[in-house]
């Protein structure tokens, strides 16, 4: 790790060690909330580092957690010698001699299996792939088969680590995101890097091929290196999902602790015989025609749960407990739970097939999805129309008629002003249709007509308040995947 990394760890330790939760800044309080069940008492924070995957350890009373700390643009995750890595592969995964030799060829890239080739024969990874495509194909196939175990080693366990990281924290004292390593593992396993060789989202490469034969670079040869491109952005995405889960869990616990009965009074339910249940499984959506996440994040069930069980579970109950104690779900008790400090969450993300079912046509969605500001983006517009299952002819005909414009292109720079008018009109029309159609509005905001009870959400917990759910001021945007061919219309809170 570079000096900046060590300084950041030291600063975190100084800011946390021997402090109390209430004395920390908001960012560090969030870090503690995201990883500890209880945070009353003196905080102890110490350096781990060395060969450990965890960099710091935080303890409050009897509860301790370890963290791998990341910062800046550097995205190196793991390094070890090719010999050490091959030894692990042979013992744990029984790789063939072909795989062993191909890995040696790739890492040394000088035509030999031990790095003894001439400097002039050393190849970059791109040139190696071009010259030996079958080697890359064979290695990638092996990595794909064992990638979860490899990522566990690279990201969490390490080679000789005595302390695995339970959480990854990306950031500084003042700003950062914290994620459980299990959640990070799932993300990295299910996303792929575009590198020549990759293990999920991690790129697999030689630390330094030293193509020019410099003396200082020779000691870095024969070392494998794993990098995570887009680490900062990905951690933010994972943390956002994790914060949502945490909010749902904490709200469920608060209801089941029954110390403050205000929420139960709002629900008009007897807390003595009712319990909050967090939704754990996806539910069948009638319109989606497949299992998706329901509108309700939690709901209420009636019955009896022993107090000793509640305390053992720290007052958290989910759908598995419904079966265990034969509880009866209460209809119309579903609650949509939002992060206390979040105002930019999605009310609903609508795919092309769902949009057509709800609005009878995708013509408005296509119009709302167009690019018009930057000329270089205009070339993506034909693909947008295709993604919304529209021909250019029907698109031109519709908007020429409703806007009294001569619409003849979605890519010509002279049409940018026209495209702007189309986009604004389409978004306003989508908003108008939702406002004027209660059935459509209830579907989008409450999930009515899509989910069975108790998985609709007639209740909303947002900004720390529990209230009846209903249509509130909203805006229409497009999903973040437009440029990558993923087309959606997103309904978000306004403001």
Describe this structure in words.
This protein folds into four domains: 3-70, no CATH class; 76-163 and 177-238, no CATH class; 247-337, no CATH class; 348-493, no CATH class. The strands form six sheets. Strands 1-2-3-4-6-7 form a six-stranded mixed β-sheet, sandwiched between helices. A four-stranded antiparallel β-sheet has the order 5-10-9-8. With 495 residues, the chain is an alpha+beta fold. The two termini are 42 Å apart. The chain has helices at 3-16, 26-35, 82-93, 97-108, 125-131, 133-145, 147-157, 181-189, 215-218, 231-257, 262-267, 307-312, 319-324, 352-359, 363-369, 381-387, 392-403, 416-436, 438-446, and strands spanning 19-20, 42-47, 56-60, 63-70, 76-81, 167-171, 176-180, 198-199, 202-206, 223-228, 274-278, 283-285, 290-292, 298-302, 328-329, 335-337, 348-350, 459-462, 465-468, 474-478, 489-493. It has 19 helices and 21 strands. A hairpin with a 4-residue loop joins strand 12 (283-285) and strand 13.
Tags for this model:
single chain, about 500 residues, alpha+beta, 4 domains, 6-stranded mixed beta sheet, 4-stranded antiparallel beta sheet, 19 helices, globular
């Amino acid at each position: 790790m570079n000096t900046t990394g060590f300084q950041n760890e030291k600063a975190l330790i100084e800011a946390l060690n021997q402090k109390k939760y209430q004395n920390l800044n908001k960012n560090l309080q969030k870090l503690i909330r995201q990883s500890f069940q209880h945070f009353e008492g003196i905080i102890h924070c110490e350096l781990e580092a060395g060969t450990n995957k965890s960099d710091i350890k935080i303890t409050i009373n009897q509860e301790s957690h370890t963290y791998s700390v990341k910062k800046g643009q550097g995205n190196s995750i793991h390094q070890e010698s090719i010999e050490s890595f091959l030894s692990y592969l042979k013992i744990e995964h029984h790789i063939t001699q072909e795989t062993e030799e191909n890995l040696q060829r790739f890492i040394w890239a000088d035509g030999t299996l031990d790095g003894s080739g001439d400097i002039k024969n050393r190849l970059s990874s791109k040139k190696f792939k071009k010259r030996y495509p079958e080697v890359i194909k064979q290695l990638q196939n092996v990595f794909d088969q064992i990638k979860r175990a490899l990522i566990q080693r690279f990201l969490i366990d390490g080679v000789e680590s005595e302390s695995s990281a339970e959480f990854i924290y990306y950031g500084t004292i003042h700003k950062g995101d914290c994620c459980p390593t299990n959640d990070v593992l799932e993300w990295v396993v299910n996303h792929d890097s575009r590198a020549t060789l990759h293990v999920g989202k991690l790129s697999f490469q030689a630390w330094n091929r030293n193509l020019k034969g410099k003396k200082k670079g020779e000691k870095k040869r024969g070392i494998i290196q794993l990098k995570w491109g887009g680490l900062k952005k990905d951690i933010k995405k994972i943390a956002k999902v994790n914060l949502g889960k945490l909010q749902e869990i904490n709200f469920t616990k608060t209801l089941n602790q029954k110390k403050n009965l205000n929420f139960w009074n709002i629900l008009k339910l007897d807390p003595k015989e009712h319990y909050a249940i967090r939704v754990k499984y996806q539910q069948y959506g009638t319109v989606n025609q497949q299992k998706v996440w329901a509108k309700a994040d939690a709901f209420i069930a009636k019955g009896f749960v022993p107090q000793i069980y509640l305390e053992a579970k720290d007052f958290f109950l989910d759908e598995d407990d419904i079966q265990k104690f034969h509880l009866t779900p209460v209809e119309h008790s579903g609650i949509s739970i939002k992060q206390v400090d979040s105002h930019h969450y999605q009310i609903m993300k609508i795919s092309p097939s769902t949009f057509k079912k709800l609005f009878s046509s995708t013509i408005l969605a296509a119009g709302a999805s167009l690019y018009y500001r930057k000329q270089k983006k205009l070339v993506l517009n034909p693909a947008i129309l295709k993604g919304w299952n529209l021909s250019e002819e029907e698109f031109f005909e519709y908007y020429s008629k409703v806007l009294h414009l001569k619409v003849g292109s979605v890519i010509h720079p002279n049409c940018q002003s026209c495209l702007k008018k189309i986009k604004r009109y389409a978004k306003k029309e989508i908003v108008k249709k939702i406002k004027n159609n209660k059935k459509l509005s209830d579907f989008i905001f409450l999930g009515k007509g899509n989910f069975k009870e108790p998985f609709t959400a007639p209740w909303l917990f947002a900004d720390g308040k529990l209230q009846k759910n209903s249509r509130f001021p909203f805006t229409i945007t497009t999903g973040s995947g437009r440029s990558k061919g993923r087309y959606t219309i997103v309904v978000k809170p306004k403001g």
